[in-house]
Amino acid sequence: MILKNLTTVEGKNISIEINGDKIAKIYEGIAPVGENMEGSLVTPSLIDAHAHLDSNFLLDVCKEAETPKFIEALQALLECKEKLRPEDIYSLAKKSIYYYLSHGSLYVRTHVMIDDNIDRLKYIAKLKEEFKDMINIQIIGFIQSYSYFNEEVEENMYKALEYADGIGGQPHLQPSREDGIMMIKKIFDAVEGKNKLLDFHADFADDSETKFSEVIISEALKRKMYGKVSLSHVTAMHSYNEDYFRRYLKWLRESEASVIVAPITALEESGAFEQYPKRRGIARVLDLLSAGVNVALGHDDIQNHLNPYGVGDMLQAGFVLAISSYMYFSPYARTIFDLMTYNGAKALHLSNYGLQVGNDADLVIYNAKSPLEALRDVKPRKMVISKGKIIYESKIEEKTVW
What is the CATH number of domain 46-347? Predict the structure, then answer.
């Protein structure tokens, strides 16, 4: 298969030849044969670096919170999950697969709660195996931390390692700083020396004194786990004073940890307990990038109590990031695409990824000719190719009626 007349994020005109599940050749310009893509934008697979497959589509089976307050929505979500059987979670998570595939997210890192048991995680692992020929699901055993991190939770963490690609948690929700630090160190202990990754819901709060990410960074440095740790959300970062932030930034960069932002739910959570003026609640993306920190993007929830609007489309997450992080000027459109492609691949430790000969033929072709147009219009994808096979295709006819 040859797809000719494509446009890269950098604005280069190329054609791509696919043989089997690999990119066999990349031509400069328009190849003499092949299907004409008419200058459409092409990227490698989009990467959703922060998702919750075991929380998607909960509104299919449970009611929303009766009042639009974050804490009540969160409580309703937790109560809903507690009522569901693991096989119910599996069915709702399976529905998610179509949404990811049709929007071009062929790599998804999902956090799956393991506080009370690992049954949900087992079912998500089953889903991962079932759809492995179409989508790569990376599983993080997630200690949600709404109960105390005791021996039972610790035991679940070690059991989860049999199925999960890594472990994470929310240390800031433990009853004291000492408890949160203990939890972090035990999570590091569990994966040290193993081929596993760490991804913490780090400092997901407005409180400027919430600084567990500095402990995570310190442990990564001490244990020489460079590049194997991710900090998700880090919304407290927008409340840090400048002196502290600049010192923090130095060690964050040296640890080679990735920061994963999920702007849709971060905006909902931030400022939830404040009167006006309210905080914006996004990690300082432009400052992080300028300092050489790897920043990736996640969509987070799909149609549940915390995000009833979600459809799992990374372009929506990118659009929200543009508005919320002062990245709305056109040159930043290319940067946002980096966050949801190559930067995500770095955070997930992917190999054979990207528009290069010999890499996996996991491609997204857009109904747009530039990154800015794609983010501005957020149209259905023109074509999604997974492992060399077309798995989704849309036909959009533009008609003027006046």
Answer: 3.20.20.140
